[in-house]
Amino acid sequence: MKASCFLPLLLVASLWLHIADSADTSCLKSFNVSSGSTTTRSYALCQSLQELGATLSWTYHPGNGSVDLAFRAKPGSSEGWVAWGINPSGGKMVGTQALIAIRQSNGTMACNTYNVSSTTTIVPSPISFPATNLSSEYHNGLVTIFATVVLPSNKTMVKQVWQVGSKAKGLYPSKHLFTQGNLQSLGYIDLASGNTTSTSPTSSPSPSPSPSKSSTSMARISVTTLLFLLGFSVTMFYNI
């Protein structure tokens, strides 16, 4: 096979990686919600979270400390569950005040609040801050949780925890996997600015914002360009 044959293969492979990776990390600032009639919910900020392919979209209202949010993730199966919450104690799973959406066996969605006080049994229960307008949707294999929460003491820097699972019994989610992604799906986020950090803000006073979608895309484009130049160089070398 001539070396020139490798050039189209390199181009196709690099383009496919760029498109596929971009799709996995996209977040939305507006959602078309079907609840009798289709409505659009829009948000000021959105962010692709660092694990489990999850995204968070939100609008912070400083006047009353409330946050309108949409959390989206792919459950472990078509009858699985997704969860997002705030842990006021700064811990991991235990102590999280969670919103959990479960797709039932008949295809309907159930979304409730859960005070996660144990690692063994998680049951629907009141949480320590108001959560209203709670609903969820399943579309194209993804579950989206919609809610309005009131931040405790209007503190915008919170410890967020999110998770996905593949099984549930009614309103009771079963244990999730313990992969690296499942164990690292947590971190601090400032819901006023969108800045994030994996450590406590007391030990890291200057959290850096997550890489923007545009900067990440530029990095991928640079890799694509490098692959193109590499393929072109190989072709020219063998044609000399």
Brief synopsis:
By secondary structure, this protein is of the alpha+beta class.
Tell me about this structure.
The protein is an alpha+beta fold. Helix content is 21%, strand content 37%. The protein has three helices and 15 strands. The strands form four sheets. A six-stranded antiparallel beta sheet has the order 8-7-6-11-14-15, with no helix packed on it. A five-stranded antiparallel beta sheet has the order 3-4-5-10-9, with no helix packed on it. It has a two-stranded antiparallel sheet with strand order 1-2. Strand 9 and strand 10 (142-150) form a beta hairpin. Helix 1 (6-24) runs antiparallel to helix 3 (213-239). It is globular. Residues 1-25, 203-230 and 232-238 have low confidence and may be disordered.
Order of helices and strands: HEEEEEEEEEEEEEHEEH
Estimated helix fraction: 10-25%
Count of extended strands:
15
Distance between the termini: 16 Å
How would a crystallographer describe the biggest sheet? Answer: 6 strands, antiparallel
Net shape: globular
In what order do the strands lie side by side in the largest sheet? 8-7-6-11-14-15
Q: Helices and strands: which structural class?
A: alpha+beta
> With helices defined by DSSP (H or I, 4 residues minimum), what is the helix count?
3
Percent strand equals 35-45%
* Mean residue pLDDT: 79
Report Rg.
21 Å
Low-confidence parts, pLDDT < 50 over ≥5 residues? Answer: 1-25, 203-230, 232-238
Question: Could you name the key traits of this structure?
Answer:
240 residues; alpha+beta; disordered C terminus; disordered N terminus; 6-stranded antiparallel β-sheet
